[in-house]
Amino acid sequence: MESAKVLDAKGLACPMPIVRTKKAINELESGDVLEIHATDKGAKSDLGAWAKSGGHELLKETEEGDVLKFWIKKV
């Protein structure tokens, strides 16, 4: 999946992955995809809920070892 930007939020604890995601998505154009890499297990529920509340679309989420990866499309 092609991303307009990759956000490295590995090693950050809640709420920092959300704070950084919000800042990064504000820099994108509508329709762009933001790829987020996080290690905080709370990001799994937090990012999905945040995307939904902002009207964005969580396209995909995977887990590779201890790294959670998310793709969020900006509306």
Automatic annotation (TrEMBL):
GO molecular function term, any single one: transferase activity
InterPro entries found in the cross-reference section: TusA-like (IPR001455), TusA-like_sf (IPR036868)
The keyword GTP-binding is assigned to this record: no
Domain of life: Bacteria
SUPFAM superfamilies xrefs: SirA-like
Family according to the record: Belongs to the sulfur carrier protein TusA family.
Name of the molecule in the record: TusA-related sulfurtransferase
Keyword annotations of the record: Transferase
Domain UPF0033: 7-31
Entry annotated with the keyword Transferase: yes
